[in-house]
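Bumping with the actual sequence this time:
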Amino acid sequence: MESGEHMPDKAKFVNELVRVAAPGATIIIVTWCHRDLGASETTLKPDEKRLLDRICNSFYLPAWCSAADYLKLLESHSLKDIKAEDWSPYVAPFWPAVIRSALTWKGITSLLRTGIKTIRGALVMPLMIQGFKKDLIKYAVITCRKPE
């Protein structure tokens, strides 16, 4: 749950998930991704990359990949019933709600007590909203089954 975005080597992450899953087990990946690339694209647009770089730097995260990238990695292991769903519309309202709660007296004093790393993360929340509005940031739920 929300761990893939913290992994610098997505292939190694998926390899390890497959390795430790029991035969017949369901693997579920719930993670932040960037949008899938179009057929004629080889990379994100420069402004999209800049926005994601700012977010990742502020949250101390390595580069993200797309849900399609995860699907390709899973397919390389001959897993069954590989599916991906975009839950972004359900998750996007979370960020404005967090900002509203941070702008209360209790929220501000809590942020000040937690230190610079938490403050730095709080300041990037509007960028997450911007990424959702631009359809750049995706909240992917990916499932598959390891064969028996």
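The tokens above came from a reply further down the thread. The chain is about 50% helix and 15% strand.
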